[in-house]
Write a structure and sequence with these properties.
- Helices cover 33% and strands 23% of the residues.
- Mean pLDDT is 85; it is low at 368-376 and 438-443.
- Strand 4 (61-67) and strand 5 form a beta hairpin.
- The longest helix is centred in the middle third of the chain and has 64 residues, at 188-251.
- It has three domains: 21-186, Trna Endonuclease, Chain: A, domain 1 (3-Layer(aba) Sandwich), CATH 3.40.1350; 225-360, no CATH class; 378-437, no CATH class.
- A seven-stranded mixed sheet has the order 3-4-5-6-7-8-11, with helices on both faces. Strands 14-15-16-17-18 form a five-stranded mixed sheet. Strands 19, 20, 21, 22 and 23 form a five-stranded antiparallel sheet that branches.
- It is of the alpha+beta class.
């Protein structure tokens, strides 16, 4: 700017002809005010401060250049309020460092995303205060981590210029309410305190590992023994199931097999999944209905050995069924039914040591116009020892075969929980408490 006098004798200052490219002329008021506060704080800390100092060849320009009166050091104080990427702010820092000038970046915005990428602090002005304080970036080591240290801007710059605080990359947690920073400012003795803490923690970790190693070895040995015992139990259960399949094939008593093939949705995709993903050519087993499959459908390979079970009932997984299903792949007609099974099994006391192997297939919905099976195709229970359940007013009650038909037997439906078929003989209810209650259909 130049001092001038008007024709009437009025004295004033005017911009030079290059005013449109003047750095000060393009600054926001907030940026310019922050630079003035940085310069004032640097002078209060005993440094010489100048605004808008260019670097050699104009490669960079410092907002405020703080220098030692004796010329021992130079530090650029950068007021960064506009958005900037981590790569750009790092590159600008490196340019100054190449010319022997270190830098500190300042912002009074709530959450500058680049904070901590380079040596930097976040400033704020508390309500009613006239001076800026350091809100983030200045820390001390306390107990097992780093905590923020409140300090005025002048105090912070005094510590920096006196080399009492330095940039540091923390290796312990920062107890910040906002976020963790990659680079912070702290004193040397706090860095040493962190080093001591890490050495102690490493020693404790090694001592803990030494104490836990025998326990882990004993635990692993126990699990290996359980796995070996389970493998024998599963092999025996599979052998028994294979023999039952051979017997069923020989007798060709496969009515339940036919019902499963025709009316259990998802059987086809399950067989395709076994072929495509597990390289097993399988078919529906003739031993369908055996209680060992817990109401599911056995999928057996060409030799009649069970390879998987389709859609078992979690309420019927116990005893022989548990031993067999714990070693087989279980395939469900939907993700929902798979999760329902897993949730129910997690609530039981006995579980396979390595859990159940479960998968699911995407069963296409049945066609809305598909006809229902005729009465002749309805499965009739022929079990020698049926387990009956009666459906009465949206609830199911336990029942048993009886010598004569009662009023309830004439009015309500009953089925066998072993084979799933309809029971046509006389029966009577054995309890007044429902086994489960279904939701009442909406009108």
């Amino acid at each position: 700017m130049h001092a001038k006098t008007s024709g009437t004798g009025l004295r004033f200052f005017a911009h030079a002809p290059g005013a449109p490219t003047c750095a000060l002329g393009l600054e926001s008021v907030a940026h310019h005010l922050l630079k003035l506060e940085l310069a004032t704080a640097a002078r209060d800390a005993g440094a010489h401060a100048e605004l808008e100092v260019p670097g050699p060849g104009g490669a960079w320009r410092a907002d405020v250049l703080a220098t030692d009166p004796s010329g021992a050091w130079r530090i650029a104080l950068e007021a960064q309020l506009a958005p900037i990427t981590d790569a750009d702010i790092t590159a600008r820092t490196e340019k100054m460092r190449a010319d022997g000038v270190s830098s500190i970046w300042f912002s009074d915005r709530p959450r500058p995303p680049w904070l901590g990428t380079v040596p930097s602090v976040r400033l704020e002005r508390p309500d009613g205060e006239k001076r800026l304080i350091v809100a983030e970036g200045l820390v001390k080591f306390s107990d097992r981590g780093w905590a923020a240290v409140p300090a005025s801007l002048s105090q912070f710059l005094t510590w920096v210029l006196d080399r009492r605080v330095l940039p540091h990359t923390p290796r312990s947690p920062l107890w910040y309410p906002q976020r963790t920073l990659t680079t912070v400012w702290t004193a040397t003795h706090y860095v040493q305190a962190e080093d001591t803490h890490l050495v102690v923690e490493e020693r404790r970790r090694r001592e803990h590992e030494a104490r836990m190693a025998p326990l882990r070895a004993a635990h692993q040995k126990k699990r290996d023994a359980i796995r070996a015992k389970s493998a024998i139990s599963r092999a025996k259960a599979s052998s028994v199931a294979t023999e039952a399949e051979r017997t069923a094939r020989a007798t060709r008593a496969g009515r339940l097999r036919e019902v499963a093939i025709r009316f259990r949705p998802g059987i086809g995709p399950a067989l395709a999944k076994l072929a495509d993903e597990h390289d097993v050519t399988a078919t529906v087993g003739w031993s369908t209905g055996d209680p060992r499959y817990a109401g599911g459908v056995p999928l057996v390979d060409e030799g009649g050995v069970p390879a998987a079970v389709f859609d078992p009932d979690p309420r019927r997984v116990h005893g022989h069924a548990f031993r067999l299903l714990a070693g087989l792949l279980l395939i469900f007609p939907s993700r929902t039914s798979q999760r329902r099974f897993e949730k129910a099994m997690n609530l039981t006391r006995y579980k396979p040591i390595d859990g159940y192997r479960t998968e699911f297939v995407d069963t296409p919905p049945s066609h809305p116009t598909a006809s229902r099976p005729s009465t002749s195709d309805v499965l009739i229970c022929t079990c020698p020892d049926p387990r009956l359940v009666a459906r009465i007013q949206n609830a199911e009650y336990p029942a048993e075969p009886s010598d004569r038909m009662g009023p309830a037997a004439a009015l309500f439906r009953i089925r066998c929980r072993v084979c799933g078929g309809r029971y046509e003989g006389p029966w009577r209810r054995t309890g007044s408490a429902p086994i489960n209650r279904t939701s009442r259909p909406k009108a």
